[in-house]
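S1.2 Input.
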Amino acid sequence: MADENVGPSAPIVSVRPGRNRLTEEDRMLQAAKRERKQKHGGQGGYGSDGSASDGGLGHGQIDDDVSILGIPKEEMTENVRSAIQMLLDEINTLRNELLRAKNHEAYLEEQAEKDRLLHVMRRRAFMARMGLAVRRVDEENVPFAFLYIQISNAADIRAAYGHGAVESLMIQASDALREGAEAGDVLGSLENFDFGVILPGDTLEAAENKVARLSAIMSGRTFSWQGQNLEIQARFGDTQITKGDSADQAIQRAKDNLQARS
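S1.3 Output.
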């Protein structure tokens, strides 16, 4: 604004209802604005003095040609405009703070759902997502596929090398799965040493392609434990989620497919 006396310390301008006379300074200011509008065809947002010249503005900008908060345009002196702009800025600040708070809440919720060690969804949260998937298949005809992944050598590694070794194995397996996952895939822990992957929008053919991709990534992974080079051994099963399925039924069908492949 051209007026230097603007901000929290600026005096409050009293607007008396029924006032219909402008000061000479206001008349000159309005005339200058009209001249700018005619010159630029009524377009252009704020000028160098901070005045508005665009007829279609949203929150945070003030239009000269409409009544703001019940104040007619002839009462919109620079001080009134500044006071209203301060209020709009404060509203925008509060809105941004609310958005940040909601984003932080969503982040905390996501962290609570994730396994801190494996960085995939905990079983309970994952089963809730499976429930949502089967509902969408029933109600919206959205295709969903599902993968069941079993780390088949986990029990042997635990028996031979202990809990720390199998923990490292599962971390490596989780890293490989997350590396091979695509946007939208939902990874989660299931029972024992098993994982599940929900594939929104995918057919069984797409699920088969995903199995081949993940199998190739995981089969090449090894890790060192107490001087031993250990590898990941995984088995895969897949299924298409169909209408009338429950989450447990879809998981069991993929697990049966895994057994049939062995």
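S1.4 Remarks. The first helix runs from residue 24 to 40.
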